Amino acid sequence: MILHKGEVLFRQGDSCQNLYKVKSGLFKVTRLHANGNMVLFNILYPGETVPHHSLISPKEAHGTAVALMRSEVEPIPAVEWYRELHEEPGKALEIALLLQEKVRFMQTRLDHLTVGSPGERLELLTRWLNDYAHGAALTDFLTQEEIGQLIGVRRETVNRLLRHPGH
């Protein structure tokens, strides 16, 4: 299944009839809060099976996943996934490894948030995304507001950093 930039993989509140193995590309996952705030809280990348919170048991989608570039995913019917989980002993280890990889990713993201200056945080995010972005600029994928949410600064700070790198 191919999705192009801006197309939705799943929406917040969806019943998640499928899980998805990300084959290529990137997705941003946003959550709309009751007060109207939209928050970018995750980036999905190749090798992941998502939604993470539904790997062991079904739960509606916590956020909305939108393709940041041309991306390929393999849909996996949830019924089939959960049947395999109960019938195949190795499936639990597969899921544990998927979750371990995501925990390690989140640890890296936390490290990036706690490093020195906002400029250093922006550089670390840019370097990480370059592994998947195929040479495209960070701002081709994310708004300044979203970049700010990922590095823990206001949009205005991101704007300043992008205009004057190194300051």
Task: Describe the overall structure.
The chain is 41% helix and 23% strand. The chain has helices spanning 78-87, 89-114, 118-133, 144-151, 155-163; strands at 2-3, 8-10, 18-24, 27-32, 38-44, 49-50, 64-67, 71-77. A 4-stranded antiparallel sheet has the order 1-8-3-6. Strands 2-7-4-5 form a 4-stranded antiparallel sheet. A hairpin with a 5-residue loop joins strand 4 (27-32) and strand 5. Helix 1 packs across helix 2 and helix 4 (144-151) crosses helix 5 (155-163). The protein is elongated, with a radius of gyration of 17 Å. The chain starts with a strand and ends with a helix. The mean pLDDT is 91.
Q: Can you list the strand order of the major beta sheet?
A: 1-8-3-6
| Structural class label | alpha+beta
Write down how many β-strands occur, each being a DSSP E stretch of 2 or more residues. Answer: 8
Which residue ranges are poorly predicted, with pLDDT under 50 across at least 5 consecutive positions? none
Order of helices and strands: EEEEEEEEHHHHH
Count of DSSP H/I helices = 5
Distance N terminus to C terminus?
A: 42 Å
Oligomeric organization of the protein chains? single chain
As a percent range, the share of helical residues equals 40-55%
Q: What is the residue-averaged pLDDT?
A: 91
Summarize the main sheet: 4 strands, antiparallel
Give Rg in angstroms: 17 Å
* Percent strand: 15-25%
Describe the global form: elongated
